[in-house]
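If your schedule permits, I should be very grateful for your opinion on a structural question. Please examine both parts with care and let me know of anything in them that strikes you as inconsistent. The record follows directly beneath this note:
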Amino acid sequence: MADPSTSVPATAATIEEVAAAAGVSRSTVSRVVNGSTSVSPSAEERVRAAIAKLHYVPNQAARSLASRQTKAVALMVPEDVSRFFGDPFIASVVEGAHHRLTASGYVFTLVLVGEETGERTIAYLRGGSVDGVIVVSHHSRDAFVDRIAGVVPVVFGGRPTRKRAGESEYYVDVDNVEGGRLATAHLIERGRRRIATIAGPSDMPAGIDRLSGYRQALADAGLAEGTVAIGDFSELGGAAAMREILADGTPDGVFVASDLMAKGALAVLAEAGLRVPQDVAIVGFDDSSIARELTPALTTVRQPALGDLVAQRLIEILSGEEPPRATLVELELIARDST
């Protein structure tokens, strides 16, 4: 008969439970499991005691890291193909991540994934094909994304939509609330008083936060909120949202939560015979190549390309380091002809 004191529990312990029992972070447990020498002797002793007590068995991804790194990283974009190839911001993140990873000796794999392919993607990751994952442009509806962080190390480009129990995620982002505030305050400084906004999707932190910044700037100036139309960060979405705003009356300023949506909005304003900036001033967000190519050139909030820094954070984790959980980079308002 087996000794009850040494039998394995029916439910396997998780790495988060081991971390809690040892009083350390999840990444510290991971480093101990992976044989890293960057853990203090006392922390390693506590982790190994917790592993023995809880009968923790590392998953396939952790064993892969301990025994053989694939030197491959997946960049996952939970968007359809048209959005991926049509959005210059996503393209800039991919370019920056690719440059950093390949320079560091990693193979770069691109994964376009949706709810219908989420389970297959998780199975692929469980097979140990990659050492880590970068996730860009995810939505709160992408429930499968939350499960990926339990399989391999993950860094998010943009604040994650949800927190997993026990530990926050690694991410690199800008202060989108401050960006929305900067853009709207600029319109107010230009003498605009009837300011509408084309916000991003309400299931993405960037969309939520930029709208919050717009409202904050109006409240600070004692101005009433204008029409709020929700877009989807696409050119067609921006055009549809601009038509919705004009149906509610003509504003004298519009903050648009992405340059690509601003391109669609400018086309609709031109169709309506409204001049920019004389009749309606426009501010975008991203400072993508689109902003400089539009006529008039678009005033916008510049956010630096995040891909390089996101990739660097993942490389640090895979090297056994423990970078900051949240990394925020600075924004800058670039004034051009549209205001």
